[in-house]
């Protein structure tokens, strides 16, 4: 995997497609095109984020962690950090269990670096039912160790964040089908504005190496 500016289409990335190719995707990301749409649909206006390469792109919405904390998405989750994102939901019986098991090995490979200078974040696709308590049970069920956050929040704002991270399909029927959700990871170094994608089922040591070199 080669780090690069926020990616457009990734070959083989089912369910993740950039709007009309890489150039349009980059232009779209730079403008933060989805924010006005989300606000018009009822999402609460995010507070202005502290400065950084993507402060004007990512929303600063309030999200809740599986351990009951409230965070600002840009300020507390993204700003200045190396972060590995994936999408999941607690009752998923398709790709989620395998992805979670593989990412547990990634977590182990990252060792003491995790939670200090690199971070793992899983975001629910079902915020309506995946409360912090439900996500906490999920963490316990899969014996996930500290340093890996699971996030939920208001549905419209979680959907906006998902789309900003590139986890969407242009076809609304495909995009709305949870059983067809993406099995990709988004890796970002926000301080250097470097972003890439890779399969969640890639070899754990390969994923960990890419995180540490991001």
- Secondary structure: helix percent: 25-40%
CATH fold-type name: Glutaredoxin
Query: Mean pLDDT score, rounded?
Result: 83
By CATH, the superfamily comes out as: Glutaredoxin
Which consecutive residue ranges, at least 5 long each, have pLDDT under 50? Answer: 1-42
Main sheet summary: 7 strands, mixed
General shape = globular
Q: Indicate how many domains the architecture comprises.
A: 1
Report the C-alpha radius of gyration, rounded. 16 Å
Kindly state the number of beta strands: 7
Number of separate helices: 8
CATH class: Alpha Beta
CATH architectural group: 3-Layer(aba) Sandwich
Q: How far is the N terminus from the C terminus?
A: 10 Å
**Main β-sheet, spatial strand arrangement:** 2-1-5-4-3-6-7
Features:
single chain; 214 residues; alpha/beta; Glutaredoxin; 7-stranded mixed beta sheet; 7 strands; disordered N terminus
């Amino acid at each position: 995997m080669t780090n690069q500016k926020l990616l457009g289409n990734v070959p083989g990335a089912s369910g993740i497609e950039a709007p009309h190719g890489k150039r349009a995707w980059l232009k779209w990301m730079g403008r933060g095109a989805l924010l006005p749409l989300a606000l018009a649909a009822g999402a609460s206006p995010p507070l202005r984020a502290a400065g950084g390469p993507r402060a004007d792109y990512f929303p600063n919405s309030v999200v809740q962690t599986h351990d009951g904390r409230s965070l600002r998405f840009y300020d507390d989750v993204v700003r200045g950090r190396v972060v590995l994102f994936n999408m999941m939901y607690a009752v998923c019986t398709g790709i989620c269990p395998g992805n979670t098991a593989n990412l547990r090995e990634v977590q182990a490979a990252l060792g003491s670096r995790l939670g200090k200078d690199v971070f793992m974040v899983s975001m629910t696709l079902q915020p309506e039912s995946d409360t912090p308590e439900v996500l906490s049970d999920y963490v316990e069920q899969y014996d996930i160790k500290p340093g890996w956050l699971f996030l939920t929040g208001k549905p419209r704002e979680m959907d906006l964040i998902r789309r900003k991270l590139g986890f969407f399909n242009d076809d609304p029927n495909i995009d709305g089908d949870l059983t067809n959700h993406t099995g990709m990871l988004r890796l970002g170094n926000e301080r250097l504005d470097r972003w890439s994608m890779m399969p969640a089922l890639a070899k754990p040591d390969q994923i960990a190496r890419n995180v540490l070199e991001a």
